[in-house]
User: What shape does this take?
Amino acid sequence: MGRSSGSTHRPEVAEVTRRLADICGTPFARLAGAADEVAGEPARWVAAPGGVHAAARVLKLAAEHDLTVVPRGAGTKIDWGAAPSRVDILLDTGRLAGVRHDARGSGVAEVGAGTPLRAAQAILGRTGQRLALDAPSDGATVGGVVAADEPGPLRHRHGPPCDQLVAVSYLDADGELVRVGGEPSAPDLDRLLCGSQGGLGVLVSAAFRVQPIPAGRVWVSRSVWSPLEVHELVRAVVASPLQPAAIEVDLPALPVDPGRTRRSGSSAPPPAGRLVVLLEGGPADVAERAVRAADLLGGDARAVHRPPEWWRRYPFREGDIALRVEVPTSDLHAAVYALRDAVGAPVPVRGSAGLGTVHAVLPGGTPPDRVATILDGVRTVLLARRGRCVVISAPPAVRHAVDLWGHPSPAGGLRAVKQRYDPRRRLAPGRLPGDC
Assistant: This one.
């Protein structure tokens, strides 16, 4: 039968499997396979309910047998964050899909949690609308984007997914359907669900504000050589009336000391990367602003009508140690330098330079004790600058050996919320900070 479910009476595998098949349909309920795991923690069953009522029945079955439930969308971020302490039922949300949108101008679209973001954008695009969501995870579902509060470049102008929510519908640990959004009785619960990795509820749908698709889009790109140069350019763009939709940087490697090379009069080293500013709006207005942006950025700045290849992509791959650095924009260059100094070598960095949030990469083979030393060094610098360095993904040996969250940690507040909404710890236990 495998591992204990944690209940005083171990449920029979055949009985749970049969009942899951009755709820979801035989093709959509099965014993978990080798690939069905969450951050290295294997599941026991996989269930893909065909609707909200069926998903509620799965949760009620889990409550009856004291089984844990972890939601899964497309699985693009299933290894992010801490490993759950136990995964009994992996609840696949793929059949909780669909888009409800009034094309006459309600300004809101309700999207099923299992709907791929790409599909939702295609459906809305038929009426000239879009969600201002551009999460980098290829194939991500809307539920997964909300559960991880995963932003893309457009966060600079429109905010992260959490800020764009109008309402959410979710199933609580007992399988009861709850809808929140704007009610005085629970004004912040929809925000708490963002980034909760399924630890507070199983999202079934989310309502977002929609907006017209911009008629004009231009990317203004410039070579950059150092984090300090990026800092100075970003400061100039933010202070200007350009109104960028996004400001992204890609620094695949850093020169040892580009300033020294320039002062010595020798030829400049190859550029370390590029800074790119996205402008959106009417075609004529965007064209005029693009000229001003190129003049402001100087150097080899140029306007193009397609994003660079790395746009809306993470710098890390499977098996890497992925870090997220969050710091006030004015201190981003100091954070990147601190990371380079702690590692003692160039570190690939990419992300939203205009917001002070970037991702960095350490080789997956870096020993856990070395990773811990690097994190301590970077976090010491960031603490004084009101910043954080979070490990979002890493091999199991590293994940279990280091503090993933750092300081300041939201663990205390989330622990109280977890106790209130999931006191029996049935929903993704261990996924939230503080091993909630």
